Amino acid sequence: MPAADKTPGTVRKKTIAAGPRKPVAPRAHPLEPSLLDSLQAVITGSLADDKAEEIITLDLAGKASFCDRMVIATGLADRQISAMAQHLTEKLHGAGLKRVQVEGAGVSDWVLIDAGDIVVHLFKPEARAMYALEKMWGADLDETV
Known about the structure:
By secondary structure, this protein is an alpha+beta fold. The protein has helices spanning 11-18, 33-49, 78-94, 125-131, 133-137, and strands at residues 53-59, 69-74, 101-103, 110-114, 118-123. The chain has a domain at 42-136: Beta Polymerase, domain 2, CATH 3.30.460.10. It has a five-stranded mixed β-sheet. The longest helix is centred in the first third of the chain and has 17 residues, at 33-49. The chain is globular, with a radius of gyration of 17 Å. The N and C termini lie far apart (40 Å).
């Protein structure tokens, strides 16, 4: 059994002290950029049709191993967020995406839609401010202080 690390501090502090990770290796089967752009257009169009607010797209290529892009949007009520998730899932299936997974649908402040190379987060305003994914994954992280 390996010995436990006896360094004082939390896991987060130890991670910060260890420094930045090595660059993320490209995924085995990424989508063509044109197909990725068309899926992103379907997603942002669907969200705009459903009156989502503050729709932003983050390019995570080379930063994350789980997706190439992230779309974040705000809905004002549970019903609106649920409807946005349902409509988006239907439109992605119509665009030829076979496997779309939805987490948190129903009554939730945060719904995640995994469309493979694009991950979509639908938040209520309070939850979006609390989690601040734009700050976590945004371009500000790339700038040196």
